[in-house]
Amino acid sequence: MGNPLKNSAEKVQQAVNALGYDFTIVEFDETTRTSKDAAAAIGCTVAQIAKSLVFRSQPGNRPVLVIASGPNRVNEDMVKAVLGEAIGKADADFVRETTGYAIGGIPPVGHLIPIRTFIDADLFQHEVIWAAAGTPNAVFRLTPAALKEMTNGEVIAIH
Question: What number of other Cβ atoms are within 10 A of residue 101's Cβ?
Fold first, then answer.
């Protein structure tokens, strides 16, 4: 740490700052690609990891971002009930084309296009959470309330 941020992480830092927040992107030598890896690198619980998962709406073909607590799996039917259409897995090309980032480092902000966002209600059990920041080694610390505000996300039960 202390070195200049990689380009993707720097883009996230700029997006965070442009939204009026002073959260600092941190890059680790070890991977933070999975929730378990991120929690180990940071020294927090897996439940404090806010993992960003991109889905494709069906039949709308629009990206849908679900920010889930680390151990939670997304119940697609629960998201469908709120969204009004089904969601399915998004492939790596779709994710990069809509967010500008590769799977494994998708941040909650700074995407190429506006993305409808849902936030796992379980994240609000924690004072502090950690989100990916553009690379498989970059994260930033924030609060659940700030995550909701900066993403304009809807808080829902996802599992």
Answer: 24
Nearest to 31 by CA among 22, 23, 44, 40: 40
109 exposure class (CB count in 10 Å sphere: 0-12, 13-18, 19+): buried
The C-alpha atoms of residue 36 and residue 17 are separated, in whole angstroms, by 27
CB 109 within 8 A of CB 16: yes
Nearest CA to 13 out of 120, 135, 97 is that of: 135
In tens, the pLDDT along 43-74 reads 999 999 999 999 999 999 999 999 999 999 99
C-alpha to C-alpha distance for 51 and 17, rounded to whole angstroms: 20
Domains present along the chain, CATH in parentheses:
7-156 (3.90.960.10)
> Could you read off the pLDDT of 16-53 as tens digits, one per residue?
999 999 999 999 999 999 999 999 999 999 999 999 99
Q: Which amino acid is at 100?
A: G
- Contact between residue 57 and residue 87 where contact means Cβ atoms under 8 Å apart: yes
Q: Where are the alpha helices (DSSP H) in 43-143?
A: 76-83, 92-99
